[in-house]
Amino acid sequence: MKTIIVVPEFHSVIDVITNSSTELFISNTGKSHEVIWEFLSDVNDLLELNDPSCGVGNIFTITEENIGEFIKDNYYYLDNMVSETPEEHWDFTRNYYIKKGWNPNEWRDNECTQEIRSSHSNEACDAYDKYIEEFVQKHMSEYKKKLIGKTILVGATDNSIPYEIFDILLKKLNAYHIHCG
User: Which of 25, 61, 66, 130 is the most exposed place for a label (fewest CB within 10 A)?
Assistant: First the structure.
């Protein structure tokens, strides 16, 4: 009996760890969306990728109207754009449980009912959402200064933007890459 081992082509070590990720490119090129779509089509033709969009699903520009939603969805990946990093969800939750006098490991406690676990978990999640909302508002002027007017290219699906065009996008579109785990 033959054994066949299939080894997928990995773009980076991160692919081995997470196996999927969305890519964002924040561009400061000043080009219109139409020009960028044409550029992507030209890159596709040159590299014979069989995808005129090169895996990009959406292109939009950050404005006063959409910056709040963009940051809300991506604050975790934009940590290098502000003067401090938000506390991670797990750390916040653990500290919240301790502050409330709850057992942070209550999910292991057989005497703790599912109802209590759910109640504590929901309260901690609501508190974290409020914490992030306050964090974003506190740093909104920093985000605005760095993002308003920038063009965002978003991968159509996980791993849809081919790794081999990352450098092209970074250099030709004066872009910054964010790997959204």
Answer: 130
Out of 37-51, 106-120, 154-168, least confident range: 106-120
- Report yes or no: 20 and 158 within 8 Å, Cβ to Cβ: yes
Cα gap 136→152, rounded to integer Å: 19
- Count of positions (residues) in the chain: 181
Q: Which two tokens stand for residue 135?
A: 């964090």
Structure-block tokens of residue 171: 């250099």
**3 state DSSP class of 6:** coil
Please name the residue that has the structure tokens 């969305």.
22
Q: How many CA atoms lie within 13 A of 6 on its CB side?
A: 1
Among 63, 20, 33, CA closest to 161: 20
- Give the Å distances, CA to CA, from 125 to 16, 81, 128, 133, 172: 29, 25, 5, 12, 41
Tell me the three state secondary structure of residue 154: strand
* Nearest Cα residue to 38 out of 56, 26, 15, 25: 56
